[in-house]
């Protein structure tokens, strides 16, 4: 009799399901307080809070004492990972695809599904990539929760600190891997680089973002991710097969619409209306509206060149003969000429308008994009002795533009207004 009562009670408990809360509390079948990033019931009892089902629900959680440790050791948590779920869910790919960029409107898809799938698949077994994705997730969630404005140290959230910690662990693990690079470690470095670019963008640190871009493209070139000429009419195949094409990812990232080009009274991700102004109202000259309109007009042509560049890179990856490569060199020269013509046109438009003060942030982003395309094209099918010096000069220019963009973006703020778009307008000085 007593045995049947115990068995009945056990069956009732087994049928009980906790449908909300963190994974740990659901397994324990107790009510979770749903505090994020870690529930207080797990924290107070010293348990590992395995987080919530989404986003990226296949990740295991981090130990609580690691997440709240005062010091960050780069070698912490770099043991092999045993993920809870092995399948990469389509919604996780879509979410990471959206998390890759904050330069875009939040609901713009970059077309980086394949890149997101590679990152998530690699994160199942590669600790630095896993830490990097966890960092991007935490920092992006913090951004969307706290807003896009400047945040004081006092306002920094646990998610923000957790994101920085995971970023540090990813950087430390990657540095350890690159001490003796092989094909798998180079792949890890390039996938990490994709996420690092996005992490720095979330933090509005475009100077550091440019450094990741420059170093990642250098890795691709030095380790020959695509076939290349090493001497006149001597074509050599790709040195490392299956290396991620970081240049393609970066081009897609910058080809997406720029939120800083939006006109006043736009709706943000929460559905509220915001008013934005790209230059100070006191500095707006006659014809300033034309200045604000040059970004979309110039973007159309630059986006077309970017699409042609992606097609060109696809052909380079498949090249098998010197004759085909020579034809591609002619196509490369034409693309570089198009980029030069685009820049001349941009300067002419700005000269004709004669607007005082800083140019719109959207135009600065176009300059950034223009230099990226030029650097990518210069390195394609070329290992000449003069290339290093030319790339060094262009990389220095890219870094200067990135520094300027970072300062401008940090000064940029979106102010909430009424549904008619009234309210204070933000200024970029």
TrEMBL record:
Query: Is Lipid metabolism included in the keywords of this UniProt record?
Result: no
Q: Pfam families from the xrefs?
A: Zn_clus
Domain Zn(2)-C6 fungal-type: where? 21-49
SMART domains, alphabetized: GAL4
Supply the alphabetized keyword list.
DNA-binding, Metal-binding, Nucleus, Transcription, Transcription regulation, Zinc
The record ties this protein, via CDD domains, to: GAL4
> What InterPro entries does the record point to?
Transcr_Regulatory_Proteins (IPR052360), Zn2-C6_fun-type_DNA-bd_sf (IPR036864), Zn2Cys6_DnaBD (IPR001138)
Q: Which PANTHER family match?
A: ASPERCRYPTIN BIOSYNTHESIS CLUSTER-SPECIFIC TRANSCRIPTION REGULATOR ATNN-RELATED
What protein name does the entry list?
Answer: Zn(2)-C6 fungal-type domain-containing protein
What organism is recorded for this protein? Aspergillus cavernicola
């Amino acid at each position: 009799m007593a045995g049947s009562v115990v068995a009945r009670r056990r069956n009732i408990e087994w049928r009980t399901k906790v449908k909300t809360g963190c994974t740990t509390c659901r397994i324990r079948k107790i009510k979770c307080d749903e505090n994020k990033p870690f529930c207080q019931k797990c924290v107070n009892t010293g348990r590992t809070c395995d987080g919530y089902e989404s986003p990226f629900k296949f990740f295991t959680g981090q130990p609580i004492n690691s997440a709240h440790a005062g010091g960050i050791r780069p070698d912490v948590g770099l043991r092999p990972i045993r993920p809870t779920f092995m399948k990469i869910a389509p919604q996780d790919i879509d979410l990471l695809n959206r998390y890759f960029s904050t330069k875009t409107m939040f609901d713009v898809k970059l077309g980086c599904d394949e890149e997101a799938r590679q990152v998530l698949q690699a994160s199942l077994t590669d600790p630095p990539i896993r830490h990097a994705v966890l960092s991007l997730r935490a920092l992006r969630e913090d951004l969307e929760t706290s807003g896009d404005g400047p945040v004081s140290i006092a306002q920094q959230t646990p998610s923000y600190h957790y994101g920085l910690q995971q970023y540090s662990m990813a950087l430390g693990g990657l540095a350890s891997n690159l001490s003796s690079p092989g094909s798998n470690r180079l792949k890890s470095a390039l996938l990490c680089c994709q996420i690092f670019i996005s992490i720095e963008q979330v933090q509005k640190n475009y100077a550091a973002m440019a450094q990741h871009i420059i170093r990642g493209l250098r890795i691709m070139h030095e380790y020959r991710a695509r076939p290349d000429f090493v001497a006149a009419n001597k074509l050599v195949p790709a040195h490392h097969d299956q290396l991620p094409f970081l240049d393609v990812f970066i081009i897609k990232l910058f080809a997406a619409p720029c939120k800083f080009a939006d006109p006043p009274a736009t709706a943000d991700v929460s559905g509220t209306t915001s008013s934005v102004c790209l230059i100070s109202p006191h500095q707006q000259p006659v014809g300033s509206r034309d200045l604000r309109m040059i970004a979309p007009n110039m973007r159309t042509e630059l986006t077309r060149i970017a699409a042609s560049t992606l097609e060109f890179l696809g052909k380079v990856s498949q090249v098998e003969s010197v004759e085909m490569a020579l034809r591609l060199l002619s196509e490369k020269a034409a693309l570089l000429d198009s980029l030069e013509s685009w820049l001349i046109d941009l300067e002419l438009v700005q000269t004709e308008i004669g607007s005082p003060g800083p140019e719109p942030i959207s135009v600065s982003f176009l300059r950034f994009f223009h230099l990226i395309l030029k650097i990518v094209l210069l390195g394609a099918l070329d290992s000449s002795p003069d290339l290093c010096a030319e790339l060094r000069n262009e990389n220095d220019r890219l870094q200067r533009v990135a520094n300027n963009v970072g300062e401008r973006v940090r000064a940029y703020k979106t102010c909430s207004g009424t549904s008619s778009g009234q309210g204070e307008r933000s200024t970029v000085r």
